[in-house]
Amino acid sequence: MQQRNRKRIEAGIGIRKLSLYREETVLELGKAPASPVSRASVAAVVANPWVGTGVTTDLSAEVGEVAPLLAKLLTDRLIDALGGADRIEAFGKAAIVGTAGEIEHGGALIHTPYFGNLMREFLQGESIICFADTRAEAGEELIVPMWHKEHAATRSHYQTVSARVPDAPRADEIAVIAAASTGPRPHPRIGDRATDPAITAQTLEAVLS
User: Fold this and answer.
1) Could you give the C-alpha distances from 151 to 11, 100, 114, 199, in angstroms and in order?
2) Which of 39, 145, 161, 181 would be 90's cystine partner, CB 3.0–4.6 Å?
3) Which parts of 83-115 fold into alpha helices (H)?
4) Nearest CA-CA partner of 77 in 21, 36, 121, 38
């Protein structure tokens, strides 16, 4: 049943391709991390519903139809790839718009509650989801930032994953990307806001002068 629903969603929103990337850091400078960490990104290459429309076009109707389905589709695959929503600790999102579209078209599919709120809920997070977006030729790589899904100021989880679909997006497409990690960077050791000293320009006056 779940597989049939996925296929129905894919067909209903004009998805041409789904691309999944997963990596696990085994060693960093010859030393294993305290616990194995996996990162993954899932890209859905979807027809841009606004190609050929003007810059004053209302995007809301298509957003309400397409973005929630993308949120469900992408997070389902992230959860499958990383072993469950409870194992995911960091997340991020991105969009690459083909050259016939606007950056706003990518924003429409990732920056509204129809995508962001649902992605956060499906991945059991609380933080605002950090993001990247661009307009590019097919095959261009985009670096997707991530941070902790519950505590955005947790520096150990500031990390990135590269996302690229070799033949996408075509000019009239958008590649929408969801990314996640099961843990922090290897060997994190730069502290956190809970342990930071109070640093201002005044406290560093002697160093800066």
Assistant:
1) 36, 37, 22, 21
2) 181
3) 103-110
4) 21
Neighbouring residues of 117: CB distance < 8 A, sequence distance ≥ 6? none
**Residue 205 CB burial class (10 angstroms; 0-12, 13-18, ≥19):** exposed
Model confidence over 101-150: pLDDT tens digits? 999 999 999 999 999 999 999 999 999 999 999 999 999 999 999 999 99
Residues 74, 32 contacting (CB under 8 angstroms): no
Q: What is the pTM of this model?
A: 0.91
Supply the DSSP string of 133-190, one letter for each residue. Answer: EEE--TT--EEEEEEESS-TT-GGG-EEEEE-BTTB--TTEEEEEEEEESS--SS--S
Q: Is the pLDDT assigned to residue 50 strictly greater than 70?
A: yes
